[in-house]
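Subgroup meeting minutes
Present: P.N., E.W., G.H.
Scribe: E.W.

1. P.N. recapped why we're keeping a running log of single-chain structure predictions: easier to compare across weeks, and new members can see raw inputs and outputs side by side.
2. G.H. added today's entry (225 aa).
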Amino acid sequence: MNTEIISTSDGSCTLRNEHFGETYHSINGAVAESMHIFINLGLRSFHNQNISILEIGYGTGLNAMLSFIENKSLGNTIFYHGIEKFPIDKETFLQFVSHSPDISAKLNTETATKFCDNWNSEIEINPNFKLLKQEIDFEDFSPSRKYDLIYFDAFSPDTQPEMWTLENLRKIINNLTDGGIFVTYCSKGILKQNLRNLNMIVKRIQGPKGKRHVIRATKDINFYT
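Output recorded in log:
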């Protein structure tokens, strides 16, 4: 898909997807948005644990790279599974990294490249971080393992409504561990209702710059016991 690199207000960059007419990250700060939603509200809930993370909408790989960097201080052993129907090409990925100082200053080119190479094969970034990037339509995806944390980072419900349906959410929530966490930038009422229908405890939390609210939901262990 045709993409364009765009600078964002925190000094990091994002890509604009010409097909969908949306950016992969917030123009008010790509890294700031990802750090607030996926790292602060998600990954930082885990310390020195063996965990599995599922990302729906792998996109630029930003959330995966930030998770790898952040985990150096958290000490988790992570299996990271990213789902993406339209992977960006290697040249675009490397341009994205080179224009993202928060990433390029902390990952050398060899390590960063691992986040875009070897699709559909599990690779080791380091002994504490395994990565599987799967090129597949979310509607065709069938989880085969349990996940402790889900990053839901698809394009918006206005652009890709099929990604946000109750049935598509059900199949991943069913594979979320008891007490597991689901985080996303979207706070639309239909999403909150779908999550509650799946017996998730939904919290609307103040969003990053440019976004009023985001969602953090946990799987209700009391319901499933």
